[in-house]
Design goal:
The chain is α/β, with parallel strands linked by helices. About 45% of the residues lie in helices and about 15% in strands. It has 2 domains: about 100 residues, Four Helix Bundle (Hemerythrin (Met), subunit A); about 200 residues, Rossmann fold, CATH 3.40.50. It has 10 helices and 10 strands.
Length: about 300
């Protein structure tokens, strides 16, 4: 059975992948803390919950969806007489949001896919994978070009998921992405964060591929839950770009070599055709305004 510590470790070590899956795991971890300590004095339980939130925040720095989700779960929890029960109720509402949002994102994005298209994607996004599976199950015929996504090869998970559902996949090494894109009609990416300036933070390589897509007039759509919006960016804070350990790139590199292992990069909104979320299909600037209007609690 999973423990709070094991979930934190799995998030940190990328055994849990995808922003939505990380957020769900983090909420489950918080539920574990609440359930296993519900008999403690109320003040002690609240302290443990907020400490657990802090630990989860530190597990992955570039995860505003996780932060927004945990903030939603714990908002004004200290005013509740039964904190454990209140948290359980909010977790149910959180899970309902994800189920409803995923259904809408998949439906909206699928309308961009036509028969005989070639669709390019990079890394692993549950929203993109679920959209492609949904489209296949609704009779659409298409081929996917995807990248291996070094150094941790998250693209292999994407390719395996799609192949398991009978979707034709051509798997490219990252440095062959230009060739993969030249043959594509559409580019679908997920997102790890979206800033108030409409910049999308996604796996390293994403902006480079978006620039290539622009050169070949290939539309770029970001498929994402709107809870990936980073409210702190409104106040001038920069979303931290996670730097991972050098040994992921070269375990026994010779001395004198500095290894840069940036996990993410920002995609300039000028390369993005639209952001597709549960709120609809919007240009990046319009998406930001729609999030503010629909979820005012996110803007703290």
């Amino acid at each position: 059975m999973a423990s709070f510590q094991s979930i934190v470790r799995d998030i940190k070590d990328i055994r849990i992948q995808g922003a939505a899956n990380i957020a769900k795991a983090a909420v489950s971890a918080l539920e574990l803390v609440a359930d296993r300590n519900k008999s403690r004095p109320r003040k002690d339980l609240l302290n443990m919950l907020f400490k657990a939130k802090s630990v989860l925040f530190q597990a992955r720095p570039t995860e505003p969806m996780m932060r927004n989700s945990l903030n939603f779960i714990l908002a004004h929890i200290e005013e509740e007489q039964e904190a454990s029960e209140a948290l359980k109720h909010r977790a149910e509402k959180f899970n309902q949001h994800f189920a409803d949002a995923e259904k809408k994102i998949v439906e909206y994005t699928s309308r961009k896919i036509s028969d005989n298209m070639v669709i390019f994607t990079h890394c692993h996004s549950s929203a993109v994978v679920n959209t492609l599976i949904y489209s296949k199950n609704h009779g659409k015929k298409f081929t996917v070009h995807n990248t291996e996504t070094r150094p941790l090869f998250q693209g292999r998970k994407t390719a395996a998921d799609l192949a398991r559902h009978g979707i034709p996949v051509v798997h490219y090494i990252d440095s062959a992405a230009r060739i993969a894109l030249k043959k594509a009609d559409l580019m679908l990416l997920g997102a790890d964060a979206i800033t108030s300036e409409g910049k999308v933070i996604n796996k390293i390589g994403s902006e480079m591929f978006a620039e290539v897509a622009e050169k070949y007039d290939i539309p770029v759509y970001i498929c994402t839950d709107s809870w990936k919006f980073d409210p702190l960016s409104i106040f001038g804070y920069e979303e931290e770009i996670e730097k991972r350990v050098p040994k992921e790139i070269w375990p026994y590199a010779p001395k004198g070599i500095t290894i840069s292992n940036l996990a993410f990069e920002k995609i300039d909104p000028k390369y993005i055709s639209a952001i597709i979320s549960e709120l609809g299909v919007y240009k990046p600037s319009a998406f930001v305004e729609e999030v503010k209007k629909t979820y005012p609690w996110i803007i703290r």
